[in-house]
Amino acid sequence: MENLSKKIEQMIKPYLEIQKTYKPILKIENKIGEVLLANLKATEQNTVIQKSLKEISSTLQKSFENINKIYSSMPKFKNPIFDNLETFKELGERLKEYAEKTPEYFLLIAQYGWFIDLDSELNFASKIAYRIQNDEIEKANELLVEYYKTNIDEIFKSLIKRHPNRKEIFEEILYSFKNNNHFTLIPTVLTQVDGICFDFTKKKFFIKDNKHLPQVTSELEEVAGKFLVLYLSPLQNQTPIMVREQDIHKFNCHLNRHEILHGINTNYGIEINSLKVISLLKYISDLLTDLDNKTFTTLS
After folding, report:
1. What proportion of the chain, given as a percentage, has pLDDT over 90?
2. Which superkingdom (predicted)?
3. Longest Cα pair distance anywhere in the chain, in angstroms?
């Protein structure tokens, strides 16, 4: 029995390492409704996402099936190893769900003007998406406002550390937020989104490719690993902040970079809009610097 135990421990060791890395997934809510995105058209980018997700799900599923076959053939007596296998089975189910639904959650939330901080808990996007799916838009906004206001100092501390050449600008943005200077803050943040993209890739966010998507999207897709690709859906589809002026009516959120910087929208200067553009800035910074152990290095 001792030899069997050692073999099992050796077999599940890599998966227990995943458990350590993705421990917050165990807190993900069990009941999440199916995402309803009937108004979205299928795009080539969606096909790429789905293909990647199928590969992830297929790999995970095969691993789970092998583990379950071994587990089901063993006598069920009290043994801590079997307890670990049960834990791993639950972890595997949560990972599979996370891999399948994260792109939908991120895109749905972005269509309401928000972008998820990748330093937040892994179940944060599912909580917000659940509210939106149930037409609790105000509650979703409240949760996001609370999150970004509570973490505003840490967010800018992180941004300054990552982008030290923009320290004074970020300090001014934070000062503007705390003093309710939202009309000044929002255009400045939008320029910095382009700026950090250019620093790292020599491409910009609000300059579009021939598919009307951000230039930087293709750069991120090229370096995206199996898990990084889960978070790219807001850049691979149209969202209100980036669409052409004539397309903004298709979204519930009308916060649009073109209308702001070209003087068309004169009512944008409110706190929630400041937090939305800050969420975009943090999200783009996360993709450029954090997820894949420094996805890019600054191009000087």
Report:
1. 47
2. Bacteria
3. 75
